């Protein structure tokens, strides 16, 4: 329940404040701590309100709302996905979110979530790999070296100890950017000329491409036994990255089946194809990887509880940190029923001039 005195004042975390908060904590520490919150909330999965995200699709992209609640706090995220934006000098994905008190409905936090979504996506990938990747994995291919690539690399390094990367992107400039950004951060990095070269000899394969279409980034012959696939890019209807035959050979793990069957790689499969929910593995109800030769696939589309975890983490880290500004967001009359009187008093105090 809210106990703050100024209920109308809501902390707002701008992009500038988010960057300062992340850098003050340290990127890898931020990812590790955030992963802890995500893992904690997966363990209490059954308490959450869950629904597939509310999506508005157009020929150019998608705009989505992602709500959830644990009965105490409510959170939602606004997020878009517009692959064409990159050609226009814009971000493919942008987002903001809110955390609120369920008992009163009053907001507790408003935050940018473009940077935060990149961090939570990477942290979620690493949490899944913690349970699904081959034991002792230290090598990873990243196919698709755009905005998500560095975050994925750092999350896997911080949480699993991955320090060898093999990179490929259809745009060589994206790979060069990724190598430049990760230089000096503890990786051995190889730029590859093809997806086939990138996946050779690695334990983990991450696909994080942006095209809004059915694609075949990985073909069946490229995936050997014993690897873990972290499929990040396929996250809306009509957008996939893996050949169907790979799915048929893999043990598939998902966040929330009603959403993933619409948006994930498994949209290529019958609606009753067996999958395992990640929360069941994290909570110990079902096994994750159970033999060395198994191909595990995390069909990641992103779910609202992960954004909830991220907002909850940021809210906790803000206490006394100074990385937010106060928004006078909510009308707060002295008498709750006298909203119009509040308007009149503002005129009397000279806060607003009447329009004649």
TrEMBL record:
InterPro entries: NAD(P)-bd_dom_sf, ODC_Mu_crystall, ODC_N
Domain of life of the organism encoding this protein: Bacteria
NCBIfam families recorded: PRK07589.1
Family to which this protein belongs: Belongs to the ornithine cyclodeaminase/mu-crystallin family.
Record's protein name: Ornithine cyclodeaminase
Organism (species): Microvirga brassicacearum
């Amino acid at each position: 329940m809210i106990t703050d005195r100024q209920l109308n004042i809501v902390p707002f975390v701008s992009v500038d404040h988010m960057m300062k908060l992340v850098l003050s904590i340290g990127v890898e520490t931020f990812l590790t701590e955030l992963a802890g919150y995500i893992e904690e909330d997966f363990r209490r999965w059954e308490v959450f309100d869950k629904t597939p995200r509310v999506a508005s699709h157009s020929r150019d992209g998608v705009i989505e709302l992602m709500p959830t609640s644990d009965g105490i706090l409510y959170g939602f995220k606004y997020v878009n996905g517009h692959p064409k934006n990159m050609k226009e000098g814009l971000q493919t994905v942008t987002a903001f979110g809110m955390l609120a008190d369920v008992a009163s409905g009053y907001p507790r936090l408003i935050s940018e979530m473009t940077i935060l979504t990149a961090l939570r996506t990477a942290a979620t990938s690493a949490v899944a790999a913690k349970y699904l990747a081959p034991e002792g994995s230290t090598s990873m291919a990243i196919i698709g070296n755009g905005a998500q690539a560095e975050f994925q690399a750092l999350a896997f390094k911080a949480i699993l100890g991955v320090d060898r990367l093999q990179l490929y992107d259809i745009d060589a400039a994206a790979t060069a950017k990724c190598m430049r950004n990760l230089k000096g951060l503890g990786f051995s990095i190889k730029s590859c000329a093809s997806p086939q070269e990138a996946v050779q000899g690695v334990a983990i394969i991450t696909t994080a491409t942006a095209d809004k279409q059915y694609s075949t980034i990985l073909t069946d012959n490229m995936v050997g036994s014993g690897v873990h696939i972290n499929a990040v890019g396929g996250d809306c209807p009509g957008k996939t990255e893996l050949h169907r035959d790979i799915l048929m050979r893999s043990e598939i793990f998902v966040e929330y089946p009603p959403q993933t069957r619409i948006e994930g790689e498994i949209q290529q499969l019958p609606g009753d194809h067996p999958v395992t929910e990640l929360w069941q593995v994290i909570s110990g109800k079902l096994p994750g990887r159970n033999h060395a030769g198994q191909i595990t696939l995390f069909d990641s589309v992103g779910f609202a509880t992960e954004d909830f975890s991220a907002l909850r983490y940021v809210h906790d880290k803000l206490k006394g940190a100074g990385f937010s500004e106060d928004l006078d967001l909510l009308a707060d009359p002295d008498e709750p029923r006298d909203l119009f009187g509040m308007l009149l008093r503002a005129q009397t105090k000279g806060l607003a001039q009447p329009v004649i």
